[in-house]
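To: structure subgroup
Subject: Chain for Friday's discussion

All,

I'm putting the inputs and outputs inline so they're searchable in the archive.
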Amino acid sequence: MKKQIFLLITLLSLSANELYACTSAIFTGKVTSDGRPLLWKHRDTGEDNNRIQFFKGEKYTFFGLVNSPDRDSIIWTGTNSAGFSIMNTASYNLKDDDVKDMDMEGYLMYKALSVCKTLDDFEKLLNRLPKPLRVEANFGVVDANGGAAYYEVNNKRFVKVDANDPKVAPNGYLIYTNYSYTGRFNEGMGYIRQQNASDIVSGRVMHSKISPQWIFDNLSRSYYHSLLGVDLKEGRYSPENGSGWFIDQDFIPRKSSVASIVIQGVKPGENPEQIIMWTVLGFPPAGVAVPLWLAAGENQPTVMLSKEVAGNAYACTKAVELKNRAFPVKRGNGNKYFNFSMIYNSDGTGYMQQLKKSEEEIYKIFTPFIQETRKNGVNKEELYKLYQKADSIITSAYSSIQF
């Protein structure tokens, strides 16, 4: 008991940098359910509100995740019409200078989606952009030619970590949080979250394959903690037994989690329009995953978009409302604690459990369409009809949540 209390106090004293962090992975076709690469980003930041937005770039159209208040050329995960997809995680062990005014990763990714088709294009872009780049990050990138890699980038240089290289990624995947493997040893953040994800994934790939649905269920909504040796979902906590309160530290989903996206790529030779951006807005344990296609342009599901300039998406707003119910304490250190029984419990009444049925319904109605697009491309009229159904399912799901 004394050891556990000491660990919890230590965790609470960690740097505030950990608040604005992400967990991510690249899964090559070697370990996925359909042989197509998966690019996963579970985003943590100080801005709760986000939406999906479509852009017309210099060379390519693209869409992705943006902060709802932003009106500038900033994007945090996205894919373009050439089949180039990108995301990032902040790194805290790469910077070796005193350059100020950093955090330009969103601008860099916007530029990359606008002009890049391949990993080689991205490398050329990094080389020709003016220095300092004003970034300290790990950029995860996949393209339609089979390329898949992380780029550890600071103000002056980058290092490519190739997910297809068996010497680098012998198991067919790479997991990144908030440190870089080529950065300063034992510095950076996210070591526990990286171990959480590694434990979960390694147990999966030995027996089965990785899918977007599996990622959302087992990573984005996991409450496994590798250091403490606990899994809150396995604890079967109910509103009637125990307080249900826990410290919000080093789980993959946290109060600062605002979205989870899995970009399902294509095999070499397939049409990039078949790329699917599976998206959960708001707080992943309180969100519903929706598959999105760039071919629909600006006509994405209305629950994922803003109805006004710099406004928030409905799906995000509702997920954040539920998150705040689980994090109700505002005074003192209360914001570091959450009521897990609101999220998940043995009675099956946690909002994660209630929303699961709606997400399964969305998977069900889109599965035949996905199979058809693999053969004949994207039928936009049919897609718009499915988007309308998804809007209805999600709206109904949030309106019927019971506590």
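Points worth raising on Friday:
The chain is about 30% helix and 20% strand.
The first helix runs from residue 2 to 12.

D.
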